[in-house]
């Protein structure tokens, strides 16, 4: 595998009746997961129109006045839904709070749903930005359509991963039954050209918390993946219609670190606004993750104790946001004091 770029896999082969084409997709995914846990897919099941509509809605939301965004702050609830202001998170120790703002969306569950009542991982009703006015219905429909299509694709990806690990194709079905996933609309203001890259990040170098992540990028680059073998950063160039797929810590743990949960970051020095939409698949919060049978042997026993999805992912969230709160306390500055997001011109839609 080339270290110079992240591979692009034609996912249509998985849906083919030609077993050779399906096997080729499985092989390409296996090679990517063994190498650095990142690949892009094209010709998948999420329509381009859904991708474009979701990005359009993200731009409309972030173009709102700050006061309207603050009305749907994720601080209004305890289940991680709503607006996240600039500089709210630190994923890479030793860097400044990150130069991004976001909006969290998930399955829109009523308050009498068992997941909400039992305080399951990031589960509950969404907040919807009333400041969008007549555009609110479009925003809600386009983001939820994209979210639901992404979950369907996640099931397909897990079927491929199962085959790549010499498991039955439906091995991850119970994990996906009642699965929790979180979608983030993200906006990265352009970093100043003279910013110190060692301290300033759109998102700091980190690994993801859950099982898999599916990322939609707009046309502005900035995502970089660490190539451990060659000790260098790989730029992930945006490709129209493609989704970037990467494995998270939960999958690395599940596979006894056979498959990689790799370090990545975003540094936006393009001089343009960058938008992206990651969907983070955590899985059924009560599911117990323990080493996959094909990933352990007498000579390579399981490295980890069994753990529930709820316990594993909740701990990682708490750590990353705790770093930002500590920075705020030590610096005496509000998180968004240094940078304010600038509204987009209407032509950007």
From TrEMBL:
GO terms for molecular function: metal ion binding; oxidoreductase activity. Belongs to the iron/ascorbate-dependent oxidoreductase family. Residues 179-283 form the Fe2OG dioxygenase domain. It comes from the Eukaryota. The keyword Oxidoreductase applies. It comes from Neoarthrinium moseri. This is Fe2OG dioxygenase domain-containing protein. The keyword Metal-binding applies. One of its GO terms (biological process) is small molecule biosynthetic process. PROSITE patterns: FE2OG_OXY. Keywords: Iron, Metal-binding, Oxidoreductase.
């Amino acid at each position: 595998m080339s270290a110079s770029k992240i591979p692009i896999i034609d996912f249509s082969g998985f849906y083919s009746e030609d077993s050779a084409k399906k096997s080729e997709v499985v092989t390409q995914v296996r090679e990517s997961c063994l190498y650095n846990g990142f690949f892009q897919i094209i010709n998948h099941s999420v329509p381009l129109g859904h991708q474009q509509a979701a990005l359009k809605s993200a731009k409309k939301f972030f173009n709102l006045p700050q006061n309207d965004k603050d009305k749907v702050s994720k601080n209004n609830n305890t289940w991680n839904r709503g607006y996240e202001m600039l500089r709210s998170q630190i994923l890479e120790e030793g860097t400044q709070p990150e130069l991004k703002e976001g909006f969290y969306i998930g399955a829109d569950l009523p308050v009498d749903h068992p997941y909400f009542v039992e305080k399951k991982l990031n589960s509950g009703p969404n907040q919807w930005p009333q400041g969008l006015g007549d555009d609110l219905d479009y925003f809600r429909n386009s983001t939820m359509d994209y979210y639901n299509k992404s979950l369907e694709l996640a099931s397909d990806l897990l079927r491929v991963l199962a085959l790549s690990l010499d498991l039955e194709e439906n091995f991850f079905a119970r994990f996906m039954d009642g699965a929790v996933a979180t979608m983030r609309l993200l906006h990265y203001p352009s970093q100043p050209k003279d910013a110190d890259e060692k301290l300033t990040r759109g998102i700091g170098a980190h690994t993801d918390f859950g099982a898999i992540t599916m990322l939609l990028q707009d046309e502005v680059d900035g995502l970089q993946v660490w190539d451990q073998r060659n000790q260098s950063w790989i730029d992930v160039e945006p490709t129209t219609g493609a989704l970037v797929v990467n494995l998270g810590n939960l999958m690395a743990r599940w596979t006894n670190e056979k498959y990689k949960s790799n370090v990545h970051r975003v540094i936006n020095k393009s001089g343009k606004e960058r938008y992206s939409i990651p969907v983070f698949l955590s899985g059924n919060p009560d599911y117990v993750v323990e080493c996959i049978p094909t990933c352990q042997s007498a000579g390579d026993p399981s490295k980890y104790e069994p753990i529930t999805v709820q316990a594993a992912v909740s701990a990682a969230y708490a750590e990353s946001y705790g770093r930002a709160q500590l920075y705020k306390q030590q610096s005496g500055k509000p998180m968004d004091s240094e940078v304010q997001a600038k509204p987009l011109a209407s032509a950007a839609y």
